[in-house]
Request: fold
Amino acid sequence: MSESDSDCDHRPVLDPAIRVVLMPKDTNAHGTIFGGVILSYIDIAAAIEARKHTVRKIVTKAMHEVVFVAPVFVGDLVSFYTELVRIGCTSITVKVIVEADRISHPSQRVLVTEAEVVYVAVDENRRPVPIRDN
Reply:
C-alpha cells in the first residue's frame, strides 16, 4: 500500500477507540513520531476494547508483530480502531488498526500499522484467572 492511498478499507466500520493529534514532544531524532508512542497508544486502545469484555484486572501479555508501513508526522490525526479477535479461558486478544489523517492533506488517510495485543486476567497475586465468572 502506498502512502498516497486515501481510502483505508482495512479498518472496522466503527468509531476509533482512541483518536489523538500527535505533537512535537512525541517525535524521534528523525522528526517523525517515535514508534514507542504509537505502541503505547496501541496498548491503551486494545485495553479499552478488552475492558468491554471483562471486569477482571488485565495485564498485557504480548503484542504481536508491529510493522510500521507509513510514518506519522506532527499534527497528524491518528486513529486507533479495535476489534475483538478471541476470548480464551484467561486471555483476550484484540486487533488494533492504526491510521493517520495527514495534517497537510486532510482528505489523505494512510495505514500506519496493525497489531494484535493479548491480555491475561490476573488476581491480586498476579496469577492468571478466568476471564469470566462461570
